[in-house]
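Researcher: Please translate sequence to structure tokens.
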Amino acid sequence: MKYAAIATWKMSYEGMKICADMLERGENGADAAIAAVSNVEDDPNFHSVGYGGRPDCRGRVFLDGGFMDGNTLHFGSVGSIEGFRSPVRIARSLAKGDANNFLAGQGAEQYARENGFEERDNLIPEMTELYEKEKDRLKALSAYDGHDTVCFCTKDCTDSLYAAVSTSGLFMKKPGRLGDSPVPGAGFYADSKTGCAAATGMGEEIMKGALSFTAVYLMKTGLSAQDAAEKALTDLQNELIERNGYAQAMSLVCLDKEGNYGVSTNVPFTFTYASEKDSPALYEAVNTGGRTMITKIKGEL
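Model: Translation complete:
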């Protein structure tokens, strides 16, 4: 296939249309992924990313983002950043050098301010109301409380692969908490020689198995994108259950270097996909007996 893209959750659908149009026109896959993720970051209807994201335990919105160039293996990441419009755009800008690629907290904010990235208060009244309602309750943190990370993996017409992710993290998280999303190898990974992958779910679980890198590595050994996705997640889940007695929610999307997709999950999960052969569409993935059953829900929403 000349081009392909896969992304997490129904919230990625409008972004997927933007992404697919750009790839169809022969535009760069990194630009397409960033434009698509930014579309979600700007939409206040999605309360796990960007503007309108769910607040932490102090009622403040902190964002994480990551980007990886599969041609160079360069990555950029920002974590626990407050007051900026697009963490994924900031992350991409950090993927150019050989050092200082991962910035967090005040250092990331200083970098973003000095380099002219747009500032924005991402806390909206609806989320302030939710915080006031929930702040005094004993609340178990849940990865899919309002859904989770938006992830895009793209392959463009030059056979280049990219991964881009953005999230506001867990609702009511502790100050400074980082999940897997900005961590290369865990939340995202791209290698144009092999494939790319990105994860969503409980970040602390995903990081225990370097889930995105593992999926790409398994493709490198010869597994198909689907088999690699399923083996990476299933092996990690089984290991966690053996050691701890349980495994929390995790989902994984990936593309191989030909543009074929793979998806695995241990909870009901929606994703979008498009290619030169497939118009943007929404799919549902469900784990059944250790295998992922995928159903196309619909095309144009």
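Researcher: Any highlights?
Model: The first strand starts at residue 4 and ends at 8.
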